[in-house]
From TrEMBL:
Flavin prenyltransferase that catalyzes the synthesis of the prenylated FMN cofactor (prenyl-FMN) for 4-hydroxy-3-polyprenylbenzoic acid decarboxylase UbiD. The prenyltransferase is metal-independent and links a dimethylallyl moiety from dimethylallyl monophosphate (DMAP) to the flavin N5 and C6 atoms of FMN. This is Flavin prenyltransferase UbiX. It comes from the Bacteria. Gene3D superfamilies: Flavin prenyltransferase-like (3.40.50.1950). It comes from Colwellia ponticola. Pfam families: Flavoprotein. It catalyses: dimethylallyl phosphate + FMNH2 = prenylated FMNH2 + phosphate. Belongs to the UbiX/PAD1 family. Dimethylallyl phosphate binds at residues 174, 190. Residues 11-195 form the Flavoprotein domain. One of its GO terms (molecular function) is flavin prenyltransferase activity.
Length: 209
């Protein structure tokens, strides 16, 4: 039986904020596209600056242009990637009845984490996260900061108590990484594991190490 071109395995919302770690986001998008997932991508203005600064990728400011950019970059299927602007309040991710049940903020700034923690939905990233929490979906925050202040830790605890997965961008070294790409894959593999998506980019402890 042939799979229809728009018959995806599921939907995931990916949010990119202004924290360091842009390479994680791009690799996660690449892996989810390869796994045949439909993606809604949200990127803050600071997120676009960090992506350009860290990996030299310029994400267009226009949502339509950004959708086309990502689709071409990852050779995605038609309608597999849709980028929404920060004030597109009528997008699916803003509605409890339409938003994907899975969302990853990668990387997640501590400012975005604070806004999510306290329900301060001033942009679409924060609203989308709020929707996932209230609908009892799966929200993963790949927080990138060091050291963590007491306030950061209090926000993490509060979010964890609400069912949010706090996954700091802290790759392990037990798999004997030989490159930066190996470290990136370590974290992206962990995210995919938590999303319940099969992956072979990162060996599990005790198996192929």
């Amino acid at each position: 039986m042939h799979q229809l071109k728009n018959d995806f395995n599921g939907k995931v919302t990916i949010a990119i904020t202004g924290a360091s770690g842009a390479a994680y986001a791009l690799r996660l998008i690449e892996c989810l596209i390869a796994a045949n997932y439909q993606l809604y991508i949200l990127c803050s203005s600071a997120g676009r600056i960090v992506v350009d600064t860290e990996v030299g990728v310029k994400i267009p400011g226009s949502p339509d242009a950004a959708s086309k950019f990502f689709t071409e970059k990852y050779q995605a299927k038609e309608q597999q990637i849709t980028v929404f602007g920060k004030e597109q309040w009528f997008s699916p991710v803003a509605s409890g009845s339409a938003a994907p049940k899975k969302m990853v903020v990668c990387p997640c700034s501590t400012g975005t984490m604070a806004a999510i923690c306290h329900g301060m939905s001033d942009n679409l990233i924060e609203r989308a996260a709020d929707v996932v929490i209230k609908e009892r979906g799966q929200l993963i925050l790949m927080v990138r900061e060091t050291p963590f202040s007491t306030l950061h830790l209090q926000n993490m605890l509060s979010l964890s108590q609400q069912g949010v997965t706090i996954m700091p961008a802290s790759p392990g070294f037990y798999h004997k990484a030989k490159s930066i790409e190996d470290l990136i894959d370590f974290m992206v593999g962990r995210v995919l594991d938590h999303l319940g998506i099969e992956q072979d980019i990162m060996p599990r402890w005790g198996y192929n190490i």
